Amino acid sequence: MTRDEAFDLVKGRLGETATLAHCLACEACMRMLAARLGADVETWGLAGLVHDLDLDECEGDPERHAVVGAEILRQRGVAEEIVHAVLGHNNKVERTSLLDKALWAVDPTTGFITAAALIRPSRSTSDLEVSSVKKRMKDKRFAAAVNRDQMRACADIGVDFDEFLGLCIKAMDGVRDRIGLAGAA
Ligand SMILES: [Fe+2]
Questions:
Q1: Is residue 75 assigned to a domain?
Q2: Residue 69: which CATH number?
Q3: Measured between alpha carbons, how far is 39 from 99 in angstroms, rounded to an integer?
Q4: Is 159:101 a contact under the CB 8 Å cutoff?
Q5: Does the predicted TM-score (pTM) go above 0.85?
Q6: How far apart, in whole angstroms, are the C-alpha atoms of residue 92 and residue 64?
Q7: Is 185 part of a structural domain of the chain?
Q8: Domain count, the chain
Q9: Are 72 and 59 within 8 A, CB to CB?
Q10: How does pLDDT run across 27-71, given as a tens digit for each residue?
């Protein structure tokens, strides 16, 4: 499946929603992480892009989330390593590969960075610093639903947390106009 085919599939299921923006943010982070780790940029980007394609239709039934998506992806011949990462991000299989583990850490991190950017005067990632994200993380009430330990699981792919956050901020800033973080212009 090409990147454009994946995008059409995901957009067709999610529409122009916050979930689509989240998928695009994850795609950007996964591509940058792959480049950093010498992994396959296209494969990792695709995993990020498609991982939540079934989220809307599985709303109210979180147990099916990722299982439905994996079935859709398999029917379209998507590589099994991507399907495995999608299943792993909702605990449907054990996360074994670097790709599985990267997606696990990226998923909550994009949400947290989005929340941290939106409370800035700029409402953007353009001037968001790692230190300010880390400061927000200490406030348990801020973006309370986001699992901090899961963000820090970047240690499992051998990337230091500060570097990981910096890399994700940079990746998301690169697509900020597509993910609602272009600022209040
Ligand atoms: Fe997600």
A1: yes
A2: 1.10.3210
A3: 8
A4: no
A5: yes
A6: 9
A7: no
A8: 1
A9: no
A10: 999 999 999 999 999 999 999 999 999 999 999 899 999 999 999
